Request: fold
Amino acid sequence: MKGKTFLILSALVACAAIFAAGCIDGGDGDTTELTALSFGFQPSTHQIAYMVAMDKGWWEEDLAPYGITTITDHKFPTGAPEMAAMIAGEIDVAYVGAAPVISALDAGLDAKIIATVQVQGSDLVVRPEITYTSPEDLKGLTIATFPAGTIQDTLLRDWLRKSGIDPDTDVDIRGMGPGDATVAISEGAVDAVFLPHPSPATIIAEGNGYTAVSSGEMEKDHACCVLVASGDLIRNHPDIVEQIVRTHIRATEYSIENQDEAAQIYHDMNKVELDVIKTSFATWDGRWVTDPAIIIDSVVAYTEVQSELGYIKKPMTADEIFDLTFYEKAVAA
Reply:
């Protein structure tokens, strides 16, 4: 288990070292006027709120009164490199899975979860020729999912253990990004994948698999993606953080009410077939939500699982992970 912790920490530190070359120091008490913000996100429909707000120009519009003149973003395949970039100071705000945040906090990240993005929303997809009736059928199979310490890896391993399947010896779990995993199952290089949407919908549309288990069946209402702000931003620019949460809520509500438009925005930004995106919206078990209070128990439970898996040194408390004040102020305004 110590080996797993070492690998996660090594990956975060190595990636952070790469990103750090472009960092600008901004520690506690930094009262320099802030004019630019950098966001991190992933090309998943889980994080559609970020994309809708960017497409509609809301980040620039809503943050301009606070002196922000430049918004940049970085797209990451999974949460591990995204959190490495945040550790290095290359991004100020992240749309990312809760589990990578835990691993990064354990590795020294100075940040807090300030809002929820969505819950559930990933599927275990197996190749068409494989019959799935229970977790027992997965024994001996090769499963691709996101790398160690991510939501998908953490949830899959915990579900397998609870189902009597040893994730280290009964199956072969291979960490990879969504693109590589989609190609791997299409070519038969792996037997199954556990991925966030829209990847399952893409694989199914191409005839390369079917959904065996949705993530909500593994753990009902489990936390998935969250909105994270750097400690520097929280301490030195709380008004900006509160506005970021307000814009996130605005974009989430708009996405829920205008799903066809949200699908088009996702298509335009990521070049996934529009019909696949609409099918993903119609068939996934995920929900876009914003209140961080509803996922506290789930996220704290992730820290216990990650500690048992050897990914982090010890479980964490809610206060070590969350800052609920910005959401509370945003909804009270």
Remarks:
- Residues 237 and 253 are 25 Å apart (CA to CA).
- The chain is about 45% helix and 15% strand.
